[in-house]
Design goal:
This is V-type ATP synthase subunit E. The chain is α+β, with helices and mostly antiparallel strands. It has eight helices and four strands. A hairpin with a 2-residue loop joins strand 3 and strand 4. The longest helix has 41 residues. About 5% of the residues have low confidence.
Length: 200
């Protein structure tokens, strides 16, 4: 997952401004909620002074507590939205990498997934067309170094990026989408740590 983590970190700087704007908007919305709650309390002035005083002690406090909760919920939702957007951007950026960088990521992922068996590696039609003899040689070398062998499948896999390993008819999904989904919680924590470090 080195490739995914690297791309996530690369886009954090760009995302910082967007994150601050969304958090500011959430805070403004929460302030509006608080203001409306105060207006509701002010309407109680039509009642007796004693009732108004009681309302300020109880009703106003409850309204403020409720609005603070809504504020925290709005900021949390904004954070989750930002993190989700960052991971989606990381995925899109990974799929769109230039050929050389793209297959460097493929090779790194393969080193972590290859098994000491004879099998096949399947790519999407797009990736198979741009696969170079040099990359095919790297694939063979990695498989051999792990005590196995791999040949590039003549068929195409229905994936956007990454690859699928096939050993004895059993497929191991090493597509970028599958790897992102499998590591989404870890990556989300990493994005949260880097992007919202000042709010921990």
């Amino acid at each position: 997952m080195t490739g995914l983590e690297t791309i996530v970190e690369q886009i954090l700087q760009e995302a910082q401004k967007e994150a601050e704007e969304i958090k500011a908007q959430a805070a403004r919305n929460a302030d509006s909620i608080i203001a409306n709650a105060k207006k509701t309390v002010d309407k109680m002035n039509e009642e007796t002074r004693e009732k108004v005083a009681q309302a300020e002690k109880s009703g106003s406090f409850r309204a403020k507590s409720s609005s603070e909760l809504k504020k925290r919920q709005a900021i949390l939702a904004a954070k989750q939205s930002i993190i989700g957007n960052m991971l989606d951007k990381a995925y899109d950026a990974m799929v769109a990498l230039p050929d050389e960088e793209y297959f460097q990521v493929i090779v790194k992922c393969l080193e972590k997934s290859v098994q000491p068996k004879s099998g096949e590696i399947c790519f999407s039609g797009k990736d198979r067309k741009r696969l170079t003899p040099q990359t095919e040689k790297q694939i063979e070398q990695i498989a051999t170094a792990h005590g196995g062998s791999l040949k590039v499948s003549n068929g195409n896999c229905d994936i956007d990026g990454g690859f699928i390993l096939i050993y004895g008819g059993i497929e191991e999904n090493c597509s970028f989408r599958a790897m992102l989904d499998a590591n989404r919680e870890h990556l989300a924590d990493k994005v949260n740590e880097l992007l919202f470090v000042d709010n921990r």
